Description:
This protein is mainly alpha-helical. The protein contains five helices and no strands. Helix 1 packs antiparallel against helix 2, helix 1 runs antiparallel to helix 5 and helix 2 (about 30-55) packs parallel to helix 5.
Amino acid sequence: MVDSKSYEDWIEMAKKDLRGARILHEAKGVEKLVAFHCQQAVEKYLKAFLIKETGYLHSGHYLMGLLKKCYKIDENFKDFIVQVTFLNSYYIETRYPAEEGLVVDEEDAKRCIEYASQVLEYSF
């Protein structure tokens, strides 16, 4: 399978990840999954912007690296440094079991949704 190079497809998937996070948050008890889907939503949204502006899909999952590429093109993305820094830690640590796993509580999950929503509300 080849990833789409349509930025609209990436935006749609980002919105679905955020919607999934909200649904999971209502279900309670799956805060790590909420955090993961919020991270994924922002990753896909940043990639959508980069596809639109550069014409190619940028690889990687490191949100800060993607965000830096975005704000080199549009300085308004600097407004999301706090949000992206927070969400960045929820990629690997929420996907796999660990001896000392990352703790994601209700407040963290709520903040993940809030921060991902703020990023996805930015129109480019």
